[in-house]
Each structure stands twice: as C-alpha cells, then as structure tokens.
Amino acid sequence: MRKNLNVIAAYSIMMGLIILVGIFQSWNIALSIFNLCLISAVMTMGANIQWGYAGLINFGIMGFTALGGLAAVLISVNPVQDAWSAGGTNILLSLFLIIGIVLAVRFVLKRYQKSKIRNYIIAAIIISGIIIIRLVSEPGIEAIEEVNPARTGFLGGLGLPIIFSWIVGAFFAGGLAFVIGKVALGLRADYLAIATLLISEIVIAIIKHEDWLTRGVKNVIGLKRPAPYEVNLQETDWFINLVEKFNSGKLALISDLSERQAALNQFVIEGSSVFVKLCYSGLFLVVVIILLILTQKALYSPWGRMMRAIRDNEEAANAMGKNVVKQHLLIFVLGSAIVGIAGAMLVTQDGLFTPGSYRPLRYTFLIWVMVIVGGSGNNFGAILGGFVVWFLWIEAAPIGLYLVNLTTAGLEDTHFLKVHLIESVPYFRFLMMGIGLLLIMRYRPKGILPEKIEIK
Amino acid sequence: MDFLNALILLLNYIFVPALAYGSQLAIGAIFVTLIYGILRFANFATGDMMSFGTMVAILFTWYFQSIGLTLGILPTALLAIPFAILFMGLYMLTIDKFVFRYYRLNKSPPVQLAMVSIGVMFVTQAVVRIIIGPSDRRFFDGEKFLIRANEFKEITGLNEGLAIKSTQVITIVVTIILVSTLFWFLNKTKTGKSMRAYSDNEDLALLSGIDPKKIVMITWMIAAILATIGGVLYGLDKSFKPFTYFNNMLPIFAAAIVGGIGNPFGAFLGGYVIAFSEILLTYAYKKFFMYVLPESMEPVGLIQLLSTDYKFAVSFSILVIVLLYRPSGIFKGKIL
Q1: Which of A173, A211, A182 is CA-nearest to residue A91?
Q2: Residue A372 above 60 pLDDT?
Q3: Could you give the CA distance from residue B286 to residue B13 in angstroms, rounded to a whole number?
Q4: How many domains does chain B have?
Q5: Which of A34, A46, A299, B154 is the most buried (most CB within 10 A)?
Q6: Contacts of A301 (CB under 8 A, 6+ apart)
Q7: CATH number for B133
Q8: What gap in Å lies between CA A66 and CA A123, rounded to an integer?
Q9: How far is CA A200 from CA A60, A108, A363, B186, in A?
Q10: Minimal CA separation from A250 to chain B, in Å
Q11: Cβ B250–A442 below 8 Å, yes or no?
C-alpha cells in the first residue's frame, strides 16, 4: 500500500480535477473529457508496450487509429446491396488479384536465387499487377460511387453490432503492423520513427481517397451505438422517474406545476446525454481495466522480463538465445493492435467516421507526449499520462485565457496586444505541451510515475 | 511542331514546377541531414523552424514595405532574409543552449534528443501561431512572371504556352548559389573540413583538437541560414501557412533519407528525386499523348498513373522502397 502511495495520489488528483470541471463547467464536458481520456489511455498503453517494454518507436499511431475506425465502419454499417451488385464482383476480383500478386512475389522470392533478374521479375509482376488491378477495379469503383452518392456511394459494411469492431480493429491494426514490422523493424530507432510516421500518412491517404470503401472525406455518419439514444431515453418512463428522483430536492423548490414540468424536462434532456456518456465511460473503463490487467501480468511474466532484457541490451539477450527480431515483431503487432482498439472506440464514441480528421503529425506526437510525461514502461504511468495530457489539451484554452487576462490586466480591453493575445489563446496548448515535455524530459526523464520493477 | 508542343507541355507542367519544388525540398533536406550528421539526432522541429524563419522574414518584409523600401521587380522578402537569418540564428543558439546542450553533454541516446526536438517543435509552433496566426499569408511583391504563357505563345507561335514564375527562377538561382557555397565551405575551408571530421568520428576529431563548441555553433548558424532561406523560398512560391510547413517536414525527411542521411550531397539530390517522382507519377499525360501519337491512337482516359490525392503517398512509398533495398540511401549515407 505504502509503495503505491504516489500512484493513488496522482490518480486521485486527476479524478479531482475532472470532478472540478464537472462542478464548475458542466458534467457533460467533464464526462466527454473523461471518455476521451480513457481512449487516450488505451492508445498510450499501446505505445507504452512498444516503447516502454521494448524500446521501439512507433510514430504510426494515427495510421493504426484510422484503421481501427475503418473497422468500426466496415463492421457496423449495413451493407449497401445496390453497390455490391453494381461493382462488387470487380472489387472481389481485384482482391483476388492482390492476393495472387503477393503469392507470385513470394513464389519468385523462394524459388530463385538473389539476383538482378529476380528483382526485375518482381518489379514486372508488381507493375503489371497494378495496371491490371486498375483496369479491373476502375469500372467497379465508378459504379459503386455512383450508387446514391449523397447517402451511400460505398460498399457499406457487415451490419453487425459495433462492439465487434473493437476486436476487428485490433486485428486490422495488428495485420498492418505485421507488414510494417517485417519491412521496417530492422532499422535503428529514429529511422523507424520516421518510417512509421510516413507509412501512417500513406494509410490515411488511402482511407481518405478510396471513396468506395470508406466514403472518404464525405464521412460516414450515424453509426450504430452500443448505448441508448438520447431521444429514446427522454421518452422512457423509468429514466424520467430516475431523473425525477435524482433531482427531487431541486424540483421540490419549484411550486408551480407547469414550471416544475418544464424544469423536469430540462433535467431529463441534460440527464439523458450524461447517461449516454456514462454508458460509454462504463464500456471504455471495462476495456481499460482488462488491458491493464493483461499488460501488468505480461510485464511481470517471464516474457516481460525477456522484453526488458532485449530493450536494455539487445546483443546480450541475443546471445542468451532470445530471438530478438521475432520478439520485436510480436510486440510491435501487439502494441499496434491495442492502438487499433482505441481507434475503433473513438469512432464508436463519436458515432461518425471522418477520415479528414486523422492528422498524423499532430496527434501522434500528442500520444507520445502522453507516454513520456506519464512514465514509459509503467502502465499506470501511461494511463495517467493519457489523462493528464488530454485534460490539459482541452483545458489549455481556458487556462491560457485566464493567464492572458492576468498578465495584461494593466492594459485596456481594446489594446492591440491584448486583443491579439486573446485571439491566439487556442495556441497556448501547443506551448503548454512543448514546455511540459521539455521540463519532464529534463528534470524527470522517467515521467511522473517512473518505471519500477519489483522482483516478485 | 507537335513534338515541340509536347516538349513545352512537359516543361511547363512538370519540369519547371518540379525543379522549383525540388530545390525547396533540397534545402530543407540538407538542413535535416546536417543536424543529423553533426548533432546526431532526427530533428522533428525542422518544419517549424523553417516556418519560424519565414515568419521573421515576413515581419521584416512588412516593416520594409511600410517604410517604402522595395527591391523593384524583385520581392522585398529577399531584402529581409539576412535580418531573418540573424534572428533565426539567435533563436537556434538559444534553443541549443537551453535545451539540446544538456543532452549533448550527457551523451544521451539519439532517440531522447529526437523526443526533445518534439518539445521544441511544439514550442516553436505555438510561438509562430501566437505571433503571426495560423492563417494563409502571401508576402510576394514585385514582378510575378518572367515569361507569361500568352507572350510565349505569341513569340514562338506554338499552341502550348510556357509560363515561368519569377519565384521559380529566384528559387532555383538562390538554391544554386546557396548549395554551391555550402559545398565549397564544407569541402574546401578548414572549418568545413573539421565539421565533416566531427561528423565522421567524434572522438577522433576531438583528439585532433577540433573545438566541439565551435562546430556546434557553426552548424546551428548554417542550419539557420538553410531554414530561413528554404522557408522563404517556399513561402514566396506558394504561400506561408504554419500547418503546411509542419506537413512539409515529411517529404523533407523522405528526401534526406532517400539521399542517404548524413550526406549533404545526397540530401540535395534526394529533394529532386522526391519532387520529380511526385509530379511525374501524378501528372495526367492525356494532352502529351495527344500531341505525340497520331490522331487515331488518341488516349481515352487521363493517362494518370496515380490520382493527385496520392501526391504525398508517392514520396513515402519511394522512401519505403529505398529503405527495403538500400537502407543507407541512394548515395550511401550513414547506415542507421
């Protein structure tokens, strides 16, 4: 108990801050911050597994997040029958062609010795394959995109409950990570960082522009929900009764009957959105706790010890007979899969998929700030980092405004400097992130909750 | 005649823009590669340092314009560049003193320095946005075109026009002067040679009496020159928007790695490799084939290898291919 005092203290302070937001701003805002904190926590756990356990830098976070989001769309949206009949065969044919190309390249790689001719053959297979795929898929894609473009114009999904997509998202992201890992894991750390960053840009470019699959920048809206809808809640009796009971004190103060009814309605509307958010929080919390238990178990298992050995001294671990390459690949896939879950959760919570909003440069670095500020290698630290940084990211504008008002209190309201500063308040969040990161890196390089390994 | 038309078409839509864009990337890539070779970390603040330098240049340009000082047909920004470089150098040295020096003296691993540079990136980003705002700004003045498409058509009597923007010419000329001076400096002067020695083998360089403080300072000064000029040229040619500069970091990194990171000449060529492949692969060749082929064989589609949406993706795919087959880059940089 005593050993974990700092963990408990840090988490209670964080919870206290969120509750303060609830009291002073509104419970709606507090809960939406809390939910996004939970999602960030899942992402940081994924990044932390890679960086903290194994020392791999993955700057492709946003690519995996977007893939998780894509999974949510492909799982939950109802299939568009017209589009399938219009261009489904072409798309399926292209899919088989892609598999054929991969198999052919593998065959050539296995069958022939390494030589210039082999490289040319592979290049020829890939280039001719791409041309054939384009010829086959083009009419199909055009046909699909012409099917009711204002509402669908894409293939749709499987029409299953959206919760399944959390698992499928993990598989998507893990699959991509496997491919990237095969290609890029041999590189040194900072090189790997750049490579993954660029690959995630490619993934997002594809998701953004392949309208037949994802509707691209037209976005997919109105996804299914695992939680009830506000509108339905506002008409259910048990919910209205619940709200009435909850606010009975306040309602009793209002004597006029019609006024009381109006106030109740107001409470019901507010309550319904809080209730929906609470449902999400519950679901997310379950995911976070399951992942936390699993990662903690892994950290203290023989496997976790091996990972740390590999991280701290690759050559020595290799000499002890550990397969470094394989373990790196494994942990890269696992961490990315967790990020994929977070991506699916994010889309589930928003109820819409907007490929345009995945900006690798911005959010990848934010996630990394979370990992480093929280404490790399420590799961509790990573989760805390997700909470602290996201909280600051959202609340930076109000804090910045307060600071600006404080420092320019001597100036008139119309003074150009004050007006300019107040206009640029939103950018104070970058300043806070940057200075926070620099200070932590300098004075507490292991993060708020540093990694500590107990021998059990 | 048709053949000439086709040639002019390619010149107008591919060669000239790619050359200008490539020069802008090349300057940035040399900046990245220099920091990587001598200070030994991947500088994620590259794009934002460039936008900071450009911002200072814009502020000076506005000041000069307000007091009525212009360069006639040339953009005023050229006059502002030296002042911006001084400012930028000061900024870089300050950052180095307060941030990077500590890690360098502690011999931290490169990854840690890269993380620190992300912190610098955030701070620089904030400073730029707070001072000048996030919106799009054009600060070009002077004569816009060297040759207009219409004039060219009249003079030569061809169907296709060739338009050359003065910013494109300025970009190319400035790049040639800057890069040749830099290579002369690195290869011929004593300081330049000691810089290369330091990059090759730090311990050996220290043993031979090279002063690391001086090397680092000069590196940051050169970096300031490259960042400012590269940023201003890009801003003159297109426009200045902090977020675009931030995004440009990616093709710049791609150029540096494709050329072989740590190798300035490779980085220089890498810039052009990236720019040309981006434009060549996403250009619609329909009109070109209409000129070249006989009428009966006229193409149906746009003959575009990839849609322009994938412009960025092209350069990154090249990078991935290079990483697969030649991890040290086309021109043998450091093996990472």
Answers
A1: A211
A2: yes
A3: 13
A4: 1
A5: A46
A6: none
A7: 1.10.3470
A8: 29
A9: 5, 28, 12, 36
A10: 45
A11: no
Domain membership flag for residue B214: yes
pLDDT tens across B44-102, in order? Answer: 999 999 999 999 999 999 999 898 888 778 888 888 999 999 999 999 999 999 999 99
Using DSSP, state whether B334 is helix, strand or coil: coil
* Interchain contact, A199 vs B110, CB within 8 Å: no
| Closest of B171, B129, B125, B140 to residue B239, by C-alpha | B140
3-state DSSP of chain A: CCCCHHHHHHHHHHHHHHHHHHHHCCHHHHHHHHHHHHHHHHHHHHHHHHHHHHCCCCCCHHHHHHHHHHHHHHHHCCCCHHHHHHHHHHHHHHHHHHHHHHHHHHHHHHHCCCCHHHHHHHHHHHHHHHHHHHHHHHHHHHHHHHCCCCCCCCCCCCCCCCCHHHHHHHHHHHHHHHHHHHHHCCCCHHHHHHHHHHHHHHHHHHHHHCHHHHCHHHCECCCCCCCCCHHHHCCCHHHHHHHHHHCHHHHHHCCCHHHHHHHHHHHHHHHHHHHHHHHHHHHHHHHHHHHHHHHHHHHCCHHHHHHHHHHHCHHHHHHCCCCHHHHHHHHHHHHHHHHHHHHHHHHHHHCCECHHHCCHHHHHHHHHHHHHHHCCCCHHHHHHHHHHHHHHHHHHHHHHHHHHHHHCCCCCCCCHHHHHHHHCHHHHHHHHHHHHHHHHHHHCCCCCCCCCCCCC
Give chain A positions within 8 Å (CB) of B102.
442
Q: Are A173 and A337 in contact (CB under 8 A)?
A: yes
Give, in order, the Cα–Cα distances in Å from A295 to each of A311, A371, B71. Answer: 17, 15, 64
Name the nearest CA neighbour of B124 among B53, B173, B57: B53
Is A433 near chain B, with CB under 8 Å? yes
Instruction: Please answer yes or no on whether B254 and A190 come within 8 Å at the CB atom.
Output: no
Neighbours of A36 (CB within 10 A): 21
For residue A419, the one-letter residue type is V
Instruction: With beta carbons less than 8 A apart as the criterion, state whether B265 and B256 touch.
Output: no
* CA distance linking residue A69 with residue A203, whole number of Å: 12
Q: Chain B closest CA to A361's CA: distance in Å?
A: 7
B332 assigned to some structural domain: no
The first and second tokens of residue B252, run together, are 């710049």
Q: Is A208 on the interface with B (CB under 8 A)?
A: yes
What global pTM score does this model have?
0.88
DSSP three-state, residue B289: helix
SS3 of chain B: helix, strand, coil, percent, to 5: 75, 5, 20
**Would you say residue B331 lies in a domain?**
no
With CB atoms and an 8 Å threshold, state whether A434 touches B119: yes
Mean pLDDT (whole number) for B238-255: 90
Which among B120, B129, B310 has the least Cβ separation from residue A209? B310
Interface size A-B, in CB pairs within 8 Å, comes to 128
Going by C-alpha positions, the residue among A37, A65, A64, A55 that lies closest to residue A374 is: A37
Per-residue pLDDT for B335 more than 70? no
First to last CA, chain B: 51
Taking an 8 Å cut-off on Cβ atoms, the answer to whether B110 and A190 are in contact is yes
Q: Which long-range contacts (CB under 8 A, 24 or more apart) does A129-132 make?
A: A129/A97, A129/A98, A129/A100, A129/A101, A129/A104, A132/A97
Domain boundaries, chain A: 5-79+156-443, 81-155
Name which of A66-70, A183-187, A334-338, B23-27 the model is least confident about: A183-187
Among A258-262, B209-213, B288-292, name the one with the lowest average pLDDT: B288-292
ipTM metric? 0.87
Determine the 3-state secondary structure of B26 from DSSP. Answer: helix
Closest partner residue to A205 among B99, B127, B312, by Cβ? B312
Structural domain range at position B70: 2-325
Could you tell me if residue B46 is inside a domain? yes
